From TrEMBL:
The keyword Ribonucleoprotein does not apply. Signal peptide: none annotated. The lineage of its organism: Bacteria, Bacillati, Bacillota, Clostridia, Thermoanaerobacterales. The keyword Cell division does not apply. One of its GO terms (biological process) is alpha-amino acid metabolic process. This is Pyridoxal-5'-phosphate-dependent enzyme, beta subunit. Keywords: Pyridoxal phosphate. It comes from Syntrophaceticus schinkii. Pfam families: PALP. InterPro entries: Cys_Synth/Cystath_Beta-Synth (IPR050214), TrpB-like_PALP (IPR001926), TrpB-like_PALP_sf (IPR036052). It comes from the Bacteria. Its cofactor is pyridoxal 5'-phosphate. Residues 78-354 form the Tryptophan synthase beta chain-like PALP domain.
Amino acid sequence: MGKIPFGPTYSEMLNPSLIAPEIRKNALAAKKNDELDPLNLFNITWKDENDKVRKVVLPKELTGTKANIVVLLGKDFPSGSHKVGPAYATLIEGCVDGNILPGKHTILGPSTGNFGIGVAYICKLMGYKAVVIMPDNMSKERYDRIRQYGAELDLTPGTESDVILTLQRTYELKKDPKNRPLAQFELMPNYRFHRHVTGNSAIEAVKGIGNGRIACFTSAPGSAGTMAAGDAIKKAFPEAKVAALEPYECATLTTGGRGQHRIEGIGDKMCTLIHNILNTDFVVLIRDEDTVQGLKVIQDGADVLEELGVPRDQAVALRGLFGVSGICNILGAIKMAKFLRLGPEDNVVTIATDGFDRYPSVLEDMEKRYLEVEPFVLKRWARDVFFKADDDQIFDFRKMENKERLFQQKEHDWLPFGYSQEYLDSMRSPEFWEEEYALVKDYDQEIKEKR
Protein backbone atom coordinates (compact mmCIF):
# COMPACT_ATOMS: atom_id res chain seq x y z
CA MET A 1 0.00 0.00 0.00
CA GLY A 2 2.94 2.39 0.52
CA LYS A 3 2.10 5.64 2.24
CA ILE A 4 -1.32 6.17 0.64
CA PRO A 5 -4.03 3.68 1.68
CA PHE A 6 -6.13 2.31 -1.15
CA GLY A 7 -9.51 4.04 -1.11
CA PRO A 8 -12.12 5.85 -3.23
CA THR A 9 -12.18 9.34 -4.68
CA TYR A 10 -14.97 11.82 -3.98
CA SER A 11 -16.45 11.05 -7.40
CA GLU A 12 -16.41 7.30 -6.70
CA MET A 13 -18.18 7.85 -3.38
CA LEU A 14 -20.87 9.80 -5.24
CA ASN A 15 -21.06 7.34 -8.15
CA PRO A 16 -19.87 3.83 -7.25
CA SER A 17 -20.39 2.88 -10.90
CA LEU A 18 -17.07 4.67 -11.53
CA ILE A 19 -15.22 2.12 -9.37
CA ALA A 20 -13.44 -0.65 -11.28
CA PRO A 21 -16.02 -3.47 -11.62
CA GLU A 22 -13.91 -6.11 -9.87
CA ILE A 23 -13.22 -3.83 -6.90
CA ARG A 24 -16.90 -2.87 -6.68
CA LYS A 25 -17.94 -6.54 -6.77
CA ASN A 26 -15.44 -7.51 -4.07
CA ALA A 27 -16.37 -4.49 -1.93
CA LEU A 28 -20.06 -5.46 -1.97
CA ALA A 29 -19.08 -9.00 -0.96
CA ALA A 30 -16.94 -7.62 1.88
CA LYS A 31 -19.90 -5.58 3.14
CA LYS A 32 -21.87 -8.80 3.61
CA ASN A 33 -19.07 -11.02 4.88
CA ASP A 34 -16.42 -8.99 6.70
CA GLU A 35 -17.07 -5.55 8.13
CA LEU A 36 -13.35 -5.01 8.74
CA ASP A 37 -12.16 -5.80 5.22
CA PRO A 38 -10.46 -2.60 3.93
CA LEU A 39 -12.41 -2.97 0.68
CA ASN A 40 -15.37 -1.60 2.64
CA LEU A 41 -13.84 1.82 2.02
CA PHE A 42 -15.40 1.51 -1.43
CA ASN A 43 -18.84 1.13 0.20
CA ILE A 44 -18.74 4.70 1.53
CA THR A 45 -21.67 5.99 -0.52
CA TRP A 46 -25.35 6.86 -0.29
CA LYS A 47 -25.99 4.34 -3.08
CA ASP A 48 -27.10 0.73 -2.72
CA GLU A 49 -25.77 -2.24 -4.70
CA ASN A 50 -27.98 -1.13 -7.63
CA ASP A 51 -26.54 2.40 -7.53
CA LYS A 52 -29.83 3.84 -6.22
CA VAL A 53 -29.83 6.38 -3.39
CA ARG A 54 -30.94 4.79 -0.12
CA LYS A 55 -33.98 6.79 0.93
CA VAL A 56 -37.53 6.65 2.21
CA VAL A 57 -40.47 8.93 1.35
CA LEU A 58 -42.43 9.36 4.56
CA PRO A 59 -46.18 8.58 4.49
CA LYS A 60 -48.16 11.80 4.38
CA GLU A 61 -50.53 10.31 6.95
CA LEU A 62 -47.58 10.59 9.37
CA THR A 63 -46.21 13.98 8.35
CA GLY A 64 -49.55 15.74 7.94
CA THR A 65 -48.13 17.73 5.01
CA LYS A 66 -49.02 17.88 1.34
CA ALA A 67 -45.33 17.96 0.41
CA ASN A 68 -43.12 14.91 -0.01
CA ILE A 69 -40.64 14.43 2.85
CA VAL A 70 -37.67 12.49 1.44
CA VAL A 71 -35.18 11.11 3.96
CA LEU A 72 -31.73 9.90 2.88
CA LEU A 73 -30.77 6.88 5.00
CA GLY A 74 -27.31 6.76 6.55
CA LYS A 75 -27.53 3.55 8.55
CA ASP A 76 -26.17 1.33 5.77
CA PHE A 77 -22.88 3.16 5.45
CA PRO A 78 -19.91 1.16 6.78
CA SER A 79 -19.88 1.55 10.59
CA GLY A 80 -23.61 2.40 10.51
CA SER A 81 -23.53 6.15 9.90
CA HIS A 82 -22.79 8.58 7.08
CA LYS A 83 -20.23 10.26 9.36
CA VAL A 84 -17.77 7.64 8.15
CA GLY A 85 -17.66 9.63 4.89
CA PRO A 86 -16.17 12.86 6.23
CA ALA A 87 -13.91 10.82 8.54
CA TYR A 88 -12.46 9.03 5.50
CA ALA A 89 -12.31 12.23 3.42
CA THR A 90 -10.37 14.05 6.12
CA LEU A 91 -7.94 11.17 6.59
CA ILE A 92 -7.33 10.52 2.88
CA GLU A 93 -6.71 14.22 2.21
CA GLY A 94 -4.16 14.21 5.03
CA CYS A 95 -2.52 11.15 3.49
CA VAL A 96 -2.38 12.74 0.02
CA ASP A 97 -0.96 15.96 1.46
CA GLY A 98 1.73 14.00 3.32
CA ASN A 99 0.58 15.29 6.71
CA ILE A 100 -0.67 11.93 8.03
CA LEU A 101 1.51 8.84 7.69
CA PRO A 102 0.67 5.24 8.71
CA GLY A 103 2.87 3.95 11.51
CA LYS A 104 3.95 7.45 12.46
CA HIS A 105 0.83 9.37 13.44
CA THR A 106 -2.02 8.74 15.87
CA ILE A 107 -5.42 10.03 14.76
CA LEU A 108 -7.57 12.18 17.09
CA GLY A 109 -11.33 12.19 16.54
CA PRO A 110 -13.28 14.87 18.46
CA SER A 111 -16.93 13.86 18.42
CA THR A 112 -20.17 13.35 20.30
CA GLY A 113 -20.59 9.91 18.76
CA ASN A 114 -21.05 9.04 15.11
CA PHE A 115 -17.99 10.84 13.79
CA GLY A 116 -15.94 9.20 16.52
CA ILE A 117 -17.29 5.80 15.51
CA GLY A 118 -16.44 6.63 11.90
CA VAL A 119 -12.90 7.67 12.85
CA ALA A 120 -12.38 4.46 14.85
CA TYR A 121 -13.65 2.38 11.94
CA ILE A 122 -11.67 4.15 9.23
CA CYS A 123 -8.47 3.97 11.27
CA LYS A 124 -9.02 0.23 11.79
CA LEU A 125 -9.29 -0.28 8.03
CA MET A 126 -6.48 2.10 7.08
CA GLY A 127 -3.94 1.02 9.67
CA TYR A 128 -3.87 3.92 12.11
CA LYS A 129 -4.05 4.11 15.88
CA ALA A 130 -7.05 6.24 16.92
CA VAL A 131 -8.09 8.17 20.01
CA VAL A 132 -11.69 9.39 20.11
CA ILE A 133 -12.37 12.42 22.32
CA MET A 134 -16.00 12.72 23.35
CA PRO A 135 -18.28 13.63 26.29
CA ASP A 136 -18.60 11.07 29.08
CA ASN A 137 -22.40 10.99 29.15
CA MET A 138 -23.33 9.71 25.69
CA SER A 139 -25.17 6.49 24.85
CA LYS A 140 -23.49 3.24 25.88
CA GLU A 141 -23.83 1.86 22.36
CA ARG A 142 -21.51 4.56 21.02
CA TYR A 143 -18.70 3.76 23.43
CA ASP A 144 -19.08 0.02 22.76
CA ARG A 145 -18.82 0.49 18.99
CA ILE A 146 -15.71 2.67 19.27
CA ARG A 147 -13.96 0.12 21.48
CA GLN A 148 -15.08 -2.66 19.15
CA TYR A 149 -13.09 -1.02 16.36
CA GLY A 150 -9.98 -0.83 18.55
CA ALA A 151 -9.83 2.89 19.27
CA GLU A 152 -9.10 4.44 22.66
CA LEU A 153 -11.61 6.73 24.36
CA ASP A 154 -10.59 10.01 25.96
CA LEU A 155 -13.72 11.27 27.73
CA THR A 156 -14.42 14.88 28.64
CA PRO A 157 -17.06 16.01 31.18
CA GLY A 158 -20.65 16.52 30.10
CA THR A 159 -23.04 15.64 27.32
CA GLU A 160 -23.97 16.65 23.80
CA SER A 161 -24.09 20.26 24.97
CA ASP A 162 -20.44 20.28 26.06
CA VAL A 163 -18.75 19.56 22.74
CA ILE A 164 -16.54 22.64 23.17
CA LEU A 165 -14.67 20.70 25.86
CA THR A 166 -13.80 18.00 23.34
CA LEU A 167 -12.30 20.67 21.09
CA GLN A 168 -10.25 22.07 23.95
CA ARG A 169 -8.98 18.58 24.82
CA THR A 170 -8.15 17.90 21.14
CA TYR A 171 -6.11 21.10 20.95
CA GLU A 172 -4.22 20.00 24.06
CA LEU A 173 -3.49 16.54 22.67
CA LYS A 174 -2.40 17.78 19.25
CA LYS A 175 0.51 19.61 20.84
CA ASP A 176 2.19 16.20 20.69
CA PRO A 177 3.61 16.06 17.12
CA LYS A 178 2.65 12.41 16.71
CA ASN A 179 -1.06 13.27 17.01
CA ARG A 180 -3.09 14.40 14.00
CA PRO A 181 -6.71 15.54 14.53
CA LEU A 182 -9.55 14.79 12.12
CA ALA A 183 -11.27 17.94 13.28
CA GLN A 184 -14.78 17.67 11.86
CA PHE A 185 -15.87 21.08 13.14
CA GLU A 186 -13.12 22.98 11.33
CA LEU A 187 -11.52 20.97 8.49
CA MET A 188 -12.88 21.42 4.98
CA PRO A 189 -12.88 17.76 3.81
CA ASN A 190 -16.08 17.45 5.87
CA TYR A 191 -17.56 20.30 3.81
CA ARG A 192 -16.30 18.85 0.54
CA PHE A 193 -17.67 15.36 1.22
CA HIS A 194 -21.18 16.57 1.99
CA ARG A 195 -21.38 19.21 -0.71
CA HIS A 196 -20.22 16.78 -3.39
CA VAL A 197 -21.43 13.38 -2.22
CA THR A 198 -24.46 14.12 -0.01
CA GLY A 199 -25.71 17.15 -1.93
CA ASN A 200 -25.60 15.51 -5.33
CA SER A 201 -27.09 12.30 -3.90
CA ALA A 202 -30.00 14.37 -2.56
CA ILE A 203 -30.52 15.89 -6.00
CA GLU A 204 -30.60 12.42 -7.51
CA ALA A 205 -32.90 11.10 -4.78
CA VAL A 206 -35.84 13.32 -5.79
CA LYS A 207 -35.86 12.30 -9.46
CA GLY A 208 -39.32 10.92 -10.19
CA ILE A 209 -40.78 12.31 -6.96
CA GLY A 210 -43.17 15.25 -7.24
CA ASN A 211 -41.72 17.85 -9.56
CA GLY A 212 -38.24 16.35 -9.27
CA ARG A 213 -36.90 19.47 -7.55
CA ILE A 214 -35.95 20.27 -3.95
CA ALA A 215 -37.89 23.08 -2.29
CA CYS A 216 -36.14 22.83 1.07
CA PHE A 217 -33.26 20.98 2.74
CA THR A 218 -33.22 20.60 6.52
CA SER A 219 -30.45 19.40 8.82
CA ALA A 220 -29.28 19.95 12.37
CA PRO A 221 -25.79 21.44 11.98
CA GLY A 222 -23.76 19.31 14.38
CA SER A 223 -20.39 19.91 12.72
CA ALA A 224 -22.34 21.63 9.89
CA GLY A 225 -20.74 19.27 7.39
CA THR A 226 -24.12 17.92 6.30
CA MET A 227 -25.33 21.50 5.84
CA ALA A 228 -22.90 21.74 2.91
CA ALA A 229 -25.29 19.54 0.94
CA GLY A 230 -27.47 22.63 0.82
CA ASP A 231 -24.80 24.44 -1.19
CA ALA A 232 -24.99 21.81 -3.94
CA ILE A 233 -28.80 21.81 -3.78
CA LYS A 234 -28.94 25.59 -4.20
CA LYS A 235 -26.70 25.37 -7.26
CA ALA A 236 -29.15 22.94 -8.87
CA PHE A 237 -32.34 24.56 -7.56
CA PRO A 238 -31.75 28.27 -6.80
CA GLU A 239 -35.19 28.59 -5.23
CA ALA A 240 -34.41 25.95 -2.59
CA LYS A 241 -34.29 26.99 1.05
CA VAL A 242 -31.82 25.61 3.59
CA ALA A 243 -32.91 25.34 7.23
CA ALA A 244 -30.56 24.64 10.14
CA LEU A 245 -32.20 22.89 13.09
CA GLU A 246 -31.14 23.25 16.69
CA PRO A 247 -32.53 22.24 20.08
CA TYR A 248 -35.06 24.59 21.63
CA GLU A 249 -33.18 24.01 24.88
CA CYS A 250 -29.86 25.17 23.37
CA ALA A 251 -30.70 27.82 20.79
CA THR A 252 -27.15 29.03 20.18
CA LEU A 253 -27.58 30.13 16.57
CA THR A 254 -30.99 31.66 17.20
CA THR A 255 -30.47 33.53 20.46
CA GLY A 256 -27.05 32.59 21.80
CA GLY A 257 -28.68 30.15 24.22
CA ARG A 258 -26.47 27.49 25.80
CA GLY A 259 -28.66 25.00 27.66
CA GLN A 260 -28.48 21.20 27.95
CA HIS A 261 -30.44 18.90 25.63
CA ARG A 262 -31.00 15.24 24.71
CA ILE A 263 -30.65 15.22 20.90
CA GLU A 264 -27.60 12.98 20.56
CA GLY A 265 -25.65 13.59 17.38
CA ILE A 266 -25.84 17.39 17.43
CA GLY A 267 -22.83 19.30 18.67
CA ASP A 268 -23.87 22.76 19.79
CA LYS A 269 -22.99 25.95 21.67
CA MET A 270 -21.05 27.13 18.63
CA CYS A 271 -21.20 28.16 15.00
CA THR A 272 -18.78 25.69 13.49
CA LEU A 273 -15.94 26.91 11.31
CA ILE A 274 -17.13 24.98 8.23
CA HIS A 275 -20.72 26.28 8.45
CA ASN A 276 -21.44 28.34 5.32
CA ILE A 277 -23.63 31.00 6.88
CA LEU A 278 -24.29 32.60 3.48
CA ASN A 279 -26.52 29.70 2.41
CA THR A 280 -28.46 29.27 5.68
CA ASP A 281 -31.94 30.73 5.15
CA PHE A 282 -33.76 29.69 8.33
CA VAL A 283 -33.03 28.33 11.78
CA VAL A 284 -35.69 26.08 13.32
CA LEU A 285 -35.96 25.11 16.98
CA ILE A 286 -36.87 21.50 17.84
CA ARG A 287 -37.76 20.42 21.38
CA ASP A 288 -35.46 17.61 22.49
CA GLU A 289 -38.16 15.51 24.16
CA ASP A 290 -40.15 15.50 20.91
CA THR A 291 -37.28 13.73 19.18
CA VAL A 292 -37.06 10.98 21.81
CA GLN A 293 -40.83 10.51 22.01
CA GLY A 294 -40.99 10.50 18.21
CA LEU A 295 -38.33 7.79 18.06
CA LYS A 296 -40.33 5.69 20.52
CA VAL A 297 -43.45 6.09 18.36
CA ILE A 298 -41.57 5.00 15.22
CA GLN A 299 -39.94 2.02 16.94
CA ASP A 300 -42.82 0.64 18.99
CA GLY A 301 -45.95 2.35 17.74
CA ALA A 302 -46.86 0.62 14.46
CA ASP A 303 -50.25 -0.44 15.86
CA VAL A 304 -50.93 3.08 17.07
CA LEU A 305 -49.86 4.65 13.79
CA GLU A 306 -52.13 2.25 11.92
CA GLU A 307 -55.05 3.33 14.11
CA LEU A 308 -54.23 6.93 13.24
CA GLY A 309 -54.34 6.26 9.51
CA VAL A 310 -50.76 5.37 8.56
CA PRO A 311 -50.72 2.26 6.32
CA ARG A 312 -49.42 -0.58 8.47
CA ASP A 313 -46.81 -1.78 6.01
CA GLN A 314 -45.34 1.71 5.83
CA ALA A 315 -45.38 2.13 9.60
CA VAL A 316 -43.57 -1.18 10.11
CA ALA A 317 -41.03 -0.36 7.38
CA LEU A 318 -39.89 2.73 9.32
CA ARG A 319 -38.62 0.70 12.28
CA GLY A 320 -34.88 0.83 12.72
CA LEU A 321 -34.28 3.53 10.10
CA PHE A 322 -33.72 6.52 12.38
CA GLY A 323 -31.88 7.71 15.45
CA VAL A 324 -32.69 10.71 17.63
CA SER A 325 -31.08 13.25 15.29
CA GLY A 326 -32.94 11.69 12.34
CA ILE A 327 -36.25 12.36 14.08
CA CYS A 328 -35.07 15.92 14.73
CA ASN A 329 -34.35 16.38 11.02
CA ILE A 330 -37.74 14.92 10.07
CA LEU A 331 -39.59 17.25 12.44
CA GLY A 332 -37.68 20.17 10.96
CA ALA A 333 -38.69 19.06 7.47
CA ILE A 334 -42.36 18.85 8.49
CA LYS A 335 -42.24 22.30 10.08
CA MET A 336 -40.60 23.87 7.03
CA ALA A 337 -43.06 22.20 4.63
CA LYS A 338 -45.89 23.83 6.57
CA PHE A 339 -44.09 27.16 6.96
CA LEU A 340 -43.38 27.39 3.22
CA ARG A 341 -46.94 26.27 2.36
CA LEU A 342 -45.59 23.55 0.07
CA GLY A 343 -47.90 21.48 -2.13
CA PRO A 344 -48.05 17.86 -3.33
CA GLU A 345 -45.48 18.41 -6.10
CA ASP A 346 -42.90 19.89 -3.74
CA ASN A 347 -40.09 17.95 -2.07
CA VAL A 348 -38.33 18.54 1.23
CA VAL A 349 -35.13 16.54 1.70
CA THR A 350 -33.47 15.67 4.98
CA ILE A 351 -30.98 13.17 6.40
CA ALA A 352 -31.06 10.25 8.82
CA THR A 353 -27.46 10.15 10.00
CA ASP A 354 -27.72 6.67 11.53
CA GLY A 355 -30.25 4.01 12.56
CA PHE A 356 -31.82 2.85 15.79
CA ASP A 357 -29.04 0.37 16.64
CA ARG A 358 -27.15 2.89 18.79
CA TYR A 359 -30.16 4.21 20.73
CA PRO A 360 -31.88 1.41 22.71
CA SER A 361 -30.36 2.78 25.92
CA VAL A 362 -31.79 6.23 25.10
CA LEU A 363 -35.33 4.80 25.01
CA GLU A 364 -34.64 2.80 28.17
CA ASP A 365 -33.62 6.02 29.91
CA MET A 366 -36.70 7.80 28.57
CA GLU A 367 -39.04 5.09 29.87
CA LYS A 368 -37.59 5.53 33.36
CA ARG A 369 -38.69 9.17 33.27
CA TYR A 370 -42.36 8.33 32.63
CA LEU A 371 -44.87 6.53 34.81
CA GLU A 372 -46.15 4.58 31.81
CA VAL A 373 -45.55 4.20 28.10
CA GLU A 374 -48.72 2.39 27.07
CA PRO A 375 -50.34 2.50 23.61
CA PHE A 376 -52.63 5.36 24.60
CA VAL A 377 -49.51 7.36 25.57
CA LEU A 378 -47.85 6.58 22.24
CA LYS A 379 -51.03 7.69 20.46
CA ARG A 380 -50.88 11.03 22.23
CA TRP A 381 -47.19 11.40 21.42
CA ALA A 382 -47.80 10.56 17.75
CA ARG A 383 -50.43 13.29 17.54
CA ASP A 384 -48.39 15.87 19.47
CA VAL A 385 -44.99 15.19 17.91
CA PHE A 386 -45.83 14.48 14.27
CA PHE A 387 -49.42 15.44 13.46
CA LYS A 388 -49.39 18.70 15.43
CA ALA A 389 -45.91 19.83 14.38
CA ASP A 390 -46.48 23.44 13.39
CA ASP A 391 -44.59 26.29 11.82
CA ASP A 392 -43.65 28.15 15.01
CA GLN A 393 -40.09 28.67 16.29
CA ILE A 394 -38.79 29.29 12.76
CA PHE A 395 -36.42 32.24 12.40
CA ASP A 396 -35.59 33.99 9.13
CA PHE A 397 -31.85 34.45 8.51
CA ARG A 398 -32.00 35.46 4.85
CA LYS A 399 -31.20 39.13 5.47
CA MET A 400 -27.52 39.96 5.85
CA GLU A 401 -28.12 41.87 9.07
CA ASN A 402 -29.49 38.66 10.58
CA LYS A 403 -26.56 36.62 9.27
CA GLU A 404 -24.21 39.10 10.89
CA ARG A 405 -24.97 37.71 14.33
CA LEU A 406 -23.94 34.25 13.11
CA PHE A 407 -20.69 35.63 11.73
CA GLN A 408 -20.04 37.24 15.10
CA GLN A 409 -20.83 33.95 16.83
CA LYS A 410 -18.28 32.21 14.59
CA GLU A 411 -15.65 34.82 15.47
CA HIS A 412 -16.40 34.39 19.17
CA ASP A 413 -16.01 30.62 18.88
CA TRP A 414 -12.92 30.34 16.67
CA LEU A 415 -10.62 33.31 17.32
CA PRO A 416 -9.64 31.66 20.65
CA PHE A 417 -8.47 28.58 18.71
CA GLY A 418 -5.91 30.57 16.72
CA TYR A 419 -7.82 31.40 13.53
CA SER A 420 -7.18 34.90 12.24
CA GLN A 421 -9.78 37.59 11.74
CA GLU A 422 -8.67 37.78 8.10
CA TYR A 423 -9.42 34.09 7.56
CA LEU A 424 -12.82 34.35 9.24
CA ASP A 425 -13.65 37.43 7.18
CA SER A 426 -12.80 35.54 3.98
CA MET A 427 -15.69 33.15 4.78
CA ARG A 428 -18.09 36.04 4.18
CA SER A 429 -17.42 35.73 0.45
CA PRO A 430 -19.06 33.10 -1.80
CA GLU A 431 -15.70 32.74 -3.56
CA PHE A 432 -14.18 31.22 -0.41
CA TRP A 433 -16.61 28.32 -0.51
CA GLU A 434 -16.34 27.84 -4.27
CA GLU A 435 -12.55 27.65 -4.04
CA GLU A 436 -12.73 25.10 -1.23
CA TYR A 437 -15.19 22.98 -3.18
CA ALA A 438 -13.10 23.16 -6.36
CA LEU A 439 -10.38 21.19 -4.55
CA VAL A 440 -12.50 18.04 -4.94
CA LYS A 441 -11.16 17.62 -8.48
CA ASP A 442 -7.58 18.12 -7.36
CA TYR A 443 -7.86 15.57 -4.56
CA ASP A 444 -9.59 13.07 -6.83
CA GLN A 445 -6.67 13.27 -9.25
CA GLU A 446 -4.09 12.92 -6.48
CA ILE A 447 -5.87 9.97 -4.89
CA LYS A 448 -5.96 8.17 -8.25
CA GLU A 449 -2.26 8.84 -8.84
CA LYS A 450 -1.01 7.92 -5.37
CA ARG A 451 -3.14 4.97 -4.40
